[in-house]
Amino acid sequence: MSFFRRKRLFTILLGFIILVSLIGFSMLDRDDLSAAEEFLQDTIGWLQQIVLTPINYTTNVIDNIDDMKNVYEENKVLKQQLATYQQTLYEVQELRKENDDLMSILDKTNSLSDYQPIQATITARSPEQWFKLVTINKGKQHGVEKDMAVITGKGMIGKIQSTSQFTSTVLLLNGFDRSNRISVNVNLSEQDEDARGFILGYNEDREQLLLEFTDYYEGISEGEYVFSSGLGGVFPKGLQIGTIEEVTTDQYGLTQIAYIKPSADLYDLNHVIVVDREMPTSREIAQDPEITDEEDEENDDEIDLQDEEED
Amino acid sequence: MSRLYLPLLLLFLLVLQGIVFNFIPNNLIQAGWMFIVHWVFIFLVLFTLFYDLEDTYYSVFFAILFGLMIDVVYTSVIGVYMFSYAIVIYFVHGLRKILHANFYVAFLLSIVSVGLVDFIIYLIYTFIGISDMGMDTYFVYRFLPTIAINLFSFIILHVMFKKKLVRWSNQRFDVKSST
Fold first, then answer.
1. Interface predicted TM-score (ipTM) of this complex, two decimals
2. Rod shape-determining protein MreC beta-barrel core domain location, by residue (chain A) (predicted)?
């Protein structure tokens, strides 16, 4: 009998050792998933799509019926908006053309705000709610890479945490911490210059993002829009993140901080866009040093130019 | 053939766990309530009670396998679900020798084991710094809703699969079951 007990103790101890080593393994800062993990995620993702398709279909039908009730009123409002929309469209075209002309004069072909959109659909959300992870149905084969920004029509929702061949995992904004900071600009309507800062993480109690300004700015009012600045080397410029809710100082009173309400709804997600920025990201440069030689100057130009614009 | 059904059923439940967010009202989640479904685990408890014999450990094997799959697919830390599922299923398997497997025993045992599993997961995640929830908040906002939703799913799974499990077990091991 004592032999069996010793064996049981031994098994539990072995279990502990395996647990600790696996946790240690997964906490490493890995760039890529192992082949086994990729295979498993792809298989499960594929099954999830099969199960989800009929569910999505029925919810769509129900939504459509709901929408039909409001068609008349919406139509009236939309017609009014259409008149102004034509005007804006014309302006946008003109401005875009002018911008292209000016860019060609400066010999600049791509800017920080250019990106390739990759359309994707959410297939699953982690049942473990401490992980703010969702799975999307596009992976490496579709051009998705680690650290790309993910947006909806309303604004940014998160970034790619890991990719498999046909699916990828997205870390939502409310799971961000200090290790995934976003460099942002705040659009100050009264001044020409934008306020700069970093998103440091998510405040669980207030359900708002925490922004720390790099400098002290006067006159930041509530309701100002916060955009990604593209200077963090990962995201393109100009993705909307949220609006300022409150401006205060940190606990030591030294730096100015603000709380930001994300503009996208992080709970009701269905279709998202993965943003592949056209300028090489810092990760791409690190992986492929040849890009650096060619594009480094261009990058420097980019930042210099921006400074000049803002000065 | 019945050998194949079990892993397929478990796989199906694993897939469904990722889709359950579609059916939980958003305002409950936004209010901070956490409903963690452990369908795979509940099925494993039934599996231990009604399928496994005293000297077979298929349920522990599946607990390790599917715990690992949950870790890989739904979380970014490997090993937590695997360890806690395996150890609690092993514990349930041990209790099986003492208890007579009927509905009430299964009911109570699944409450206790789901609570235990979720608490072990909480402890490990707190220890490695993934959750920073206080013990009292954990009990109100996560422990109780999780127990509630899993009890509900236990009843459904029990009704659907209890007889099938016993039948498959008899086919597989070719003995008269005690229940």
1. 0.80
2. 122-275
